[in-house]
Amino acid sequence: QRVLKATISTLGTLKDLTREALELGVEFLDLVPVPGLAPAARLVLDVWDAVQEVDMNRLASLRLAERCADILLSVRLEVKEAGDVVGEELSGPLQRLEQSFKQVLEFLQKNKRRPLLKRYLKRDEILQEISGLDTNLRDALGMFGLSVQIRILKQVQESEKQRQ
User: Fold this and answer.
1) Exposure of 112 in the CB half-sphere (CA atoms within 13 A)
2) How many CA atoms lie within 13 Å of 47's alpha carbon, on the beta-carbon side?
3) CA 150 to each of CA 45, 121, 157: distance values in angstroms, whole numbers, following the listed order
4) Taking a C-beta distance cutoff of 8 angstroms, is the pair 49, 26 a contact?
5) Per-residue pLDDT of the chain (164 residues; tens, 9 = 90+)
6) How far does the chain reach from its first CA to its final CA, in angstroms?
7) Residue 4, exposed/middle/buried by CB under 10 A (0-12, 13-18, 19+)?
8) Pairwise CA distance, residues 124 & 48, whole Å
9) In sequence order, which residues have a C-beta less than 8 Å from that of residue 53 and are 6 or more positions away?
10) At residue 55, what are phi and psi to the nearest 5 degrees?
11) H helices within the chain, ranges in order?
12) Which residue in 59, 9, 32 sits closest to 17, CA to CA?
């Protein structure tokens, strides 16, 4: 499920239900044999909670939360397609992903504590920060692509060795 569709379609009466569905997903991820993925999912839930309190740049913040959820789902799908067997190749990208999610969370929490006037006056700077966070998330996702390519290359090399 994509967070943006869920938030736009449920802001109001079903907001708590959406949060509960995300929480259940995190509990399921605890059972998944992917080291580090459950903490990242918990951070996505925290991002979701923080977005609920955003009053300025709400749409941009919702998109940021959606990007976090989409990346988490993409990583999980990639790992599932690889047979849920991953090595240390993913520990670096998982740490980077978690760090990116923490940065998003810290940004949202920092802005909700700022006075309204200060947020209004710094709205352009805030939008630039959001853009930077989006870039960080894309970079974190890119690390997974590189790790998957390295893993595939190692598997191909091992297959070639076994044939010889």
Assistant:
1) 16
2) 32
3) 30, 46, 10
4) no
5) 455 443 343 334 444 545 555 555 555 554 444 555 778 888 888 999 899 888 888 888 888 998 898 888 887 777 666 555 555 667 788 889 899 999 999 999 998 888 888 878 888 898 899 999 999 999 998 887 777 677 667 777 777 788 77
6) 45
7) middle
8) 22
9) 108, 112
10) -120, -20
11) 3-10, 15-30, 37-51, 58-81, 91-113, 116-121, 123-163
12) 9
Which pTM does this prediction carry?
0.71
Task: Classify residue 151 by burial, with Cβ atoms within 10 Å: 0-12, 13-18, 19+.
Answer: middle
Structure tokens that stand for 61 in this block: 């913040």
Q: Give the number of other Cβ atoms within 10 Å of residue 109's Cβ.
A: 14
Q: Among 50, 100, 92, 33, which Cα is nearest to 72's?
A: 100
The single residue listed with the structure tokens 């010889």 is 164
Closest to 87 measured CA to CA, from 34, 158, 37: 34
For residues 54 and 108, what is the distance between their CA atoms, to the nearest angstrom?
7
